[in-house]
Design brief:
cytoplasm, 332 residues, five-stranded parallel beta sheet, alpha/beta, transferase, Methyltransferase, Cobalt-precorrin-4 Transmethylase, Domain 2, Ribosomal RNA small subunit methyltransferase I, globular, Cobalt-precorrin-4 Transmethylase, domain 1, 3 domains, 13 helices, 42% helix, single chain, 4pyrrole_Mease_sub1, 10 strands
Length: 332
Amino acid sequence: MQIRRSFTGEGPRLYVCSTPIGNLADASFRLVETLRSADVIAAEDTRHTRKLLSHYDIHPRRLVSYHEHNRRRRADDLIRWWQEGKTVALVTDAGTPGVSDPGDDAVALAIEHGVPVIPVPGASAVLAALTGSGFPVQPFTFLGFLPRGRTQALDVLSPYAGTPGALVLYEAPHRLVKTLRLLDELWPERRVVLAKELTKRHESFLTGMPGELARHLEEEPPLGEYVLVLEPARTGSGWRSPLLDTVRASGATASSAGASAEAGSSAVAGGLGPDGAAPADPLENAIALVRQAMAEGMSHADAVRAVSRQTGVRRKELYHATLEGGCTRAGP
């Protein structure tokens, strides 16, 4: 057991500072005073942070960069400053360090060296989007940014069909339509709220089915980062996924003697992409289907057999691809 007390007299400290997510007026008095008094401000982007500092007439004693590409090199500096008794304020471009931004390493390093870690809370894109979505706020699950690959994104999303509460995601504008298409493939009847320009003049919330929103954004290309809020699962059940339903049906067909050719041909449609066209990489699509089927309890062999019949991908190739990918059957 470990007890850590934030305020134990003078000495080194790490302040984890939440900064405005768009509207500079959201900076708290405490944030401003913390930035003014800190010996070092470690910022994700010093140029971006200077705008906030200038707005509040803050003249930092030392402003350094701390981001994804230098955080390991910067660790020695942090330790040295703490050994000298200095206070460090950690900030990102917007929001809270560690929430889809650099910061976890610095917090872990401070704890390891006995340095008090003091959160300075503030604006949150997650909470702003949730409270404006119109969906029940509690409980909710925050997933951050999805992996770039389709297979990996499906691996993250699939287990949450029946999870109580809303799902919250972040997404960049150039990937937003692709993500909505994926959601349309998984849960076409699950409403999504897109929150954009939060706290700014053009703040807005778009609500609709994922396919509907994707079509809208194809006509009006998105700008800026978005927060996606997916409505909670329906009471007593999860969201049905046509993608998974097809795999299950295909598996049942594969294990049933004398299955008709018509059943196999109807299953092939499940291997198509969300727009009805053949996916750019049939093997990647098939791997995603196998992983989803296994997450629902189907054995590796049955899932490979069913998806191979469904998509036309060679069974041996698919078996080894999913085996090497570390597929394991979900527990009972």
